[in-house]
Amino acid sequence: MRKSLLVLLLACVFTLVNAVAAFAYNPGQRTIQLLGSTLNSDKQPVHLVVTQKIDMAEILTPEAYNKLSTAQKVRYSRTEYNEANGIYAERNTRIDGEGKIISDTNTFVKGGYWYTIDFVNKTYDRLPELPGMSKPFAETLISWFSVRPEAGVDAVTGYEYDKMTKGSNSLYFYYEKGTANWKGYEVNYLPAFKVEEVSNVVNAETAFALPPADYKQKANEGMRNYANRLMGGSKKK
After folding, report:
1. Cα–Cα distance between 166 and 144 in angstroms, integer?
2. For the purposes of burial, counting CB atoms within 10 Å of the CB of 135, is it exposed (0-12), middle (13-18) or buried (19 or more)?
3. Model pLDDT, residue 233
């Protein structure tokens, strides 16, 4: 995690100490502690698993929804973050409404290369490392703290939340009432992510494993397009 995040965390903590709170925790206090300690892979390894359910009934009209197959009506995603010794791996698994794995990929930078491994198609792609290719989970949230956090209670779940705002969008971190027990997070235009696992134990042998010998290298267009954007940004600087 870079110094910019640490400076931000210290500034927020100073603000929170001087705030008047209506809850057991000041607005943003739990999230600052979470990002600066529990999810700070500069201090210890970070293992995080979150899941998300996308119900098409909440997106489509009833007529359009009824035309979908059982497999298409619901999508589940599982994202596993493993961070240790400067390596940040993100494994994304997508499952359809019938339980079939649609996609399963792991991406990380190791040994000077950026890897994306496709476990469904048994392929991989790798590119020379570029700055910004891989970041720890906590660092990706820096830009959300430009405005002072707010606190509240979710009417449906009863969870308390810290709310961060960026432009017209909001990010919510949910906690069990009166505790620092992190339950999940949500961006206002996406379904909520539920926290399934969080610990400081990372199995580096599996989390950062290179592609198996029988996997074939195949160009990953999304990966290469992102690399091209990074290279374009570097040239402008």
Report:
1. 6
2. middle
3. 57
Residues whose CB is less than 8 angstroms from the CB of residue 142 and which lie 6 or more positions away in sequence, other chains included: 4, 5, 8
Taking only Cα atoms into account, the Rg of the chain, rounded to an integer number of angstroms, comes to: 20
The closest of 36, 38, 135, 42 to 89, measured between CA atoms, is 135
| pLDDT above 50 (res 18) | no
Type of residue found at 186: E
- The pairing of strands 46-55 and 74-84 is antiparallel
Q: What is the pLDDT of residue 24?
A: 83
Q: How far apart are CA 81 and CA 47, in angstroms?
A: 6
Is pLDDT of 14 > 50?
Answer: no
Find out whether 115 and 215 touch, Cβ atoms under 8 Å: no
Q: Torsions phi, psi of 205, nearest 5?
A: -65, -35
Distance CA 141, CA 158 (A): 24
Q: What does the domain layout of the chain look like in residue ranges?
A: 1-40+136-195, 46-135+203-237
Long-range contacts of 142-149 (CB under 8 A, 24+ apart): 142/4, 142/5, 142/8, 144/171, 145/8, 145/12, 145/28, 148/15, 148/27, 148/28, 149/12, 149/27, 149/28, 149/31
CB atoms within 10 A of CB 69: 9
Residue 77 pLDDT > 60, yes or no? yes
Higher local confidence (pLDDT), 11 or 76: 76
